[in-house]
UniProtKB/TrEMBL annotation:
<feature type="domain" description="DDH">
    <location>
        <begin position="98"/>
        <end position="231"/>
    </location>
</feature>
<feature type="coiled-coil region">
    <location>
        <begin position="328"/>
        <end position="365"/>
    </location>
</feature>
<keyword id="KW-0540">Nuclease</keyword>
<comment type="similarity">
    <text>Belongs to the RecJ family.</text>
</comment>
<keyword id="KW-0269">Exonuclease</keyword>
<keyword id="KW-0378">Hydrolase</keyword>
<dbReference type="Pfam" id="PF17768">
    <property type="entry name" value="RecJ_OB"/>
</dbReference>
<dbReference type="GO" id="GO:0003676">
    <property type="term" value="F:nucleic acid binding"/>
</dbReference>
<dbReference type="GO" id="GO:0006281">
    <property type="term" value="P:DNA repair"/>
</dbReference>
<dbReference type="InterPro" id="IPR041122">
    <property type="entry name" value="RecJ_OB"/>
</dbReference>
<dbReference type="InterPro" id="IPR003156">
    <property type="entry name" value="DHHA1_dom"/>
</dbReference>
<dbReference type="GO" id="GO:0008409">
    <property type="term" value="F:5'-3' exonuclease activity"/>
</dbReference>
<dbReference type="InterPro" id="IPR004610">
    <property type="entry name" value="RecJ"/>
</dbReference>
<dbReference type="InterPro" id="IPR001667">
    <property type="entry name" value="DDH_dom"/>
</dbReference>
<dbReference type="Pfam" id="PF02272">
    <property type="entry name" value="DHHA1"/>
</dbReference>
<dbReference type="Pfam" id="PF01368">
    <property type="entry name" value="DHH"/>
</dbReference>
<dbReference type="InterPro" id="IPR038763">
    <property type="entry name" value="DHH_sf"/>
</dbReference>
Length: 597
């Protein structure tokens, strides 16, 4: 049974153990800092506290609350090779060379390639497109892909969201005389592969301080560099230099879907990009919003959870070129056709994901039954599609609050198994996978703190599981710390209003590095619990002063669902969302966790 310890003051509220095994702590703001921040937010104590707990200094408050490109946009020349790359590409445009963009198959790659396609179009030039197949080619450029582009007439290639670590492919490009400009943002080694130019704020010799940018952000800076260089040379197409501001919707979308941290210029990209997105100037985004049932596309939720999965669906289970084509097209009819194909592929992706998730959860339950103290979950199966194993690993991590790896092989997927991992805060799964590769436990692999990928033979899975369980035993304290759920404030159900949601939105956008506020409802009564969709629960939380509608996603078959159904008083943690239905604006709580009173 979950336990809750709380005092009469809401500021002392905490939960020792919730339905999901987490503990809640109330954020502790520096009172002096709160008072200094209050004038920046109209003397709102709540907003001042939210800013204080997010580390915002009073001197930064104005630009944090209203981030602009004027305040945050970096000097393009501060990026290593940026000026060199701009010169190469502008010369190629002017000389009408055949240029092809080689894009990664995710949203960041698709938005990056679409920004470049639209920029080239403004100069009256077509930009070729190449997107690798996840199953047949894997991530990033290959020697074979560059040979194909050379043989089919490309004079120059721009890689976006990939290429920085493609040593073999870039060596091949140099050998066959194919110039390649790399625009990437992934971590790199000290040894640079050969290229015509390599723009990456995560180059070890880059001094821009912009390593937090997604590829779409780097590409947006790049087109600004192109415009600046053209202006310096006194050059422009007949209609004038391309207006790059309308590209901010694509920049924001790539930034959000790649989970880039929302600080510095990324906040300005997203804040202003969502404003552009709401104007429906991009036919592809409007068509995709229509098939997704979105009226006005203007929120982080719309971009990240409605558009993003559909754009990713082609790269996961179908044609990886569709998303990039959709985002670049100005043809309304083509946009509708492409959007409908992506929507259908997303439905297929959900079915594939659901089937694998059921099998993976069964394996996870069995593994925990055998060893409740194991510090990682590893599930595997023949025929498990590599396009969804990363999503399934994320679902396992969310459900069990443990680092999780999902592996698939066979049935047309090739003899080598592919795995994808997701981790909890404080446990670096990329390092663990890299170490396993160095010790010969798996064929190859790596990643970063929160995610990683690997290749191994199917008969290595058990040894890899044993090795990982032993390795993760040392991170018990980190896993425990990751169970903390930080509560920003205790809220009465009756105080949750559209006006409060609008007030909170003033400190957005929310995302990685800028967490959305989490509120706790203390000792409320739950009524009207009903299942909606496949396994979601909708219900009412109320106390003597008011009520609020709540939804708990994917909770029907979890301990959270059991607590909600038992009719007792509970504590609920979640995020406030505004929704409009039949012209009436209402507020609901998206539930993160519950605990019995």
């Amino acid at each position: 049974m979950a336990q809750a310890a709380h005092q009469s003051s809401p500021h002392l509220f905490e939960v020792d153990q919730s339905a999901s095994g987490r503990f809640w702590t109330l954020a502790d703001a520096d009172e002096a800092l709160v008072r200094r921040l209050a004038p920046s937010v109209g003397s709102s104590d709540l907003l001042a506290r939210l800013l204080a707990t997010r580390g915002v200094d009073p001197a930064q408050a104005a630009s944090y609350l209203a981030p602009t490109l004027r305040d945050y946009f970096p000097d393009p020349s501060s990026f290593a090779d940026m000026d060199k790359a701009a010169g190469i590409i502008l010369d190629a445009i002017l000389s009408k060379k055949r240029v092809t963009v080689f894009a990664d198959y995710d949203v960041d790659g698709g938005t990056s390639s679409a920004i470049l396609a639209r920029y080239f179009r403004a100069w009256g030039q077509d930009l070729g497109l190449y997107v690798p197949d996840r199953l047949e080619e894997g991530y990033g450029p290959s020697p074979a892909a560059f040979r194909h582009l050379k043989d089919t007439g490309s004079d120059l290639v721009i890689t976006v969201d990939c290429g920085g670590a493609a040593v073999d492919a870039l060596n091949e490009a140099e050998a066959i005389g194919l110039p390649v400009v790399v625009i990437d943002h992934h971590l790199m080694s000290a040894v640079l592969p050969p290229s015509a130019a390599l723009v990456n704020p995560n180059r070890l010799d880059d001094t821009s301080g912009c390593g937090h940018l997604a590829a779409a952000g780097v590409v947006f800076v790049f087109v600004a560099a192109l415009n600046r260089l053209a202006r310096e040379r006194g050059l422009a197409p007949a209609d004038g230099l391309p207006d790059i501001m309308p590209f901010l919707d694509l920049c924001a979308l790539g930034t959000l879907c790649d989970m880039a941290p929302l600080h510095g210029v990324n906040r300005a990209f997203v804040r202003q990009g969502l404003t552009i997105m709401a104007r429906d100037q991009n036919p592809g985004l409007r068509a995709l919003a229509d098939v997704a049932g979105i009226g006005k596309t203007e929120t982080v939720y719309h971009a990240t959870f409605m558009l993003g999965p559909r754009l990713n669906a082609g790269g996961r289970v179908g044609d990886p070129w569709i998303a990039a084509k959709l985002l670049a097209t100005d043809d309304r009819q083509e946009a509708i056709e492409l959007a409908e194909r992506l929507h259908a592929l997303n439905e297929e992706r959900k079915e594939v994901e659901s089937a694998i998730l059921d099998l993976a959860m069964a394996q996870a339950e069995q593994a925990l039954a055998r060893n409740p103290d194991r510090g990682i979950l590893i599930a595997s199966g023949e025929g498990w599609h590599p396009g969804v194993i990363g999503i399934v690993a994320g679902r396992l991590k969310e459900r069990y609050h443990l680092p999780s790896i999902v592996i698939g092989w066979g049935e047309g997927l090739g003899p080598v198994a592919k795995g994808s991992g997701r981790s909890v805060k404080g446990v670096n799964i990329g390092d663990a996978i890299s170490m396993a590769a160095r010790e010969g436990i798996i064929l190859s692999g790596g990643g970063h703190a929160m995610a990683g990928g690997l290749s191994l033979d199917p008969d290595q899975v058990q040894a890899f599981d044993d090795w990982m369980v032993a390795h993760m035993a040392q991170f018990s304290a980190e896993r425990t710390a990751a169970l903390e759920l930080a509560i920003d404030a205790v809220l009465a159900p009756g105080a949750a209003s559209p006006a409060l949601v609008d007030q909170i939105a003033q400190i957005g956008p929310f995302g990685i590095g800028s967490p959305e506020p989490v509120f706790a409802l203390k000792s409320v009564h739950v009524t009207g619990v009903r299942q909606v969709g496949v396994n979601h629960l909708r219900f009412i939380a109320e106390d003597a002063g008011g009520r609020i509608e709540c939804i708990a996603w994917r909770a029907a078959d979890t301990p959270m669902g059991d607590v909600l159904r038992n009719g007792a008083r509970v504590h609920i943690a979640g995020k406030l969302k505004a929704d409009e239905w039949n012209g009436r604006r209402r507020v609901q709580l998206d539930v993160a966790d519950v605990a019995a009173d």
